[in-house]
Amino acid sequence: MKRGDTVVVATKNAGKVKEFAHAFGKLGLNVVSMFDYPDLPEVVEDGLTFAENARKKAREVAEALGMPVLADDSGLEVEALGGDPGVYSARYAGPGATDTLNNAKLLMELEHLAKDSFTTDGKQNQLEDGTKLLSPARFVCTLALFDPASGKFMESIGFVDGQIASKPRGSGGFGYDPLFWLPTHGKAMAELTMEEKQAISHRGAALALLLGKLENHSE
Ligand SMILES: O=P(O)(O)OP(=O)(O)OP(=O)(O)OC[C@H]1O[C@@H](n2cnc3c(O)ncnc32)[C@H](O)[C@@H]1O
Ligand SMILES: [Mg+2]
């Protein structure tokens, strides 16, 4: 990839598109997404892992377009929920789920549990304004780049650890960002600028790894 090239990202998530456009823009690359190809058939995300879904999105779109395509499959793993919503993060609240409905569903599930198991050391798990920290959690992002000419994938994975807060904060980012508390920053993910989010996020980490692999590959 060289300055001026276009990267096709197989996503219909406007939040992801913004983050990729920002990251690739710094390298002089343009980003197009599935919003630019509205007629492509929908990819059914029925994989059991993030990696399977990322590969499926990348391969199907790359084969339809006849060019290399990058896909991102990501989600939230919440310890107290045994790793849920995981690969179901986008549709946690059911068909037609929105970020708002998914966040409400997450809080409902956790507050349910909190009554039994998270009350004893309440002080420690509480922010100054009374917001409770309900469970450790982790964002995961897998990236898959598929080149239909070679039939090969290049893949990477990134993580970021935090806590689920009982109240949303901030208006940046997307998805579960307002509920994802970063003890290291004393802020929710949605309170970070895009630049700050990229520096610490699961997507930023996965992208840095992938770019490193691409660089080695082209040498
Ligand atoms: O499949 P595409 O079209 O890329 O878009 P999507 O929104 O369906 O994306 P996923 O299938 O990968 O589902 C990931 C969900 O996990 C959540 N998520 C992923 N990355 C996130 C981030 O950086 N911040 C907050 N929530 C995130 C968010 O709810 C996403 O909808
Ligand atoms: Mg999806």
UniProtKB/TrEMBL annotation:
Enzyme active site: D73
The EC number(s) this enzyme carries: 3.6.1.66
MF terms in GO: dITP diphosphatase activity; ITP diphosphatase activity; metal ion binding; nucleotide binding; ribonucleoside triphosphate phosphatase activity; XTP diphosphatase activity
UniProt KW Magnesium keyword: yes
SUPFAM superfamilies: ITPase-like
GO cellular component: cytosol
Biological function: Pyrophosphatase that catalyzes the hydrolysis of nucleoside triphosphates to their monophosphate derivatives, with a high preference for the non-canonical purine nucleotides XTP (xanthosine triphosphate), dITP (deoxyinosine triphosphate) and ITP. Seems to function as a house-cleaning enzyme that removes non-canonical purine nucleotides from the nucleotide pool, thus preventing their incorporation into DNA/RNA and avoiding chromosomal lesions.
Protein name: dITP/XTP pyrophosphatase
Organism, as annotated: Paenibacillus baekrokdamisoli
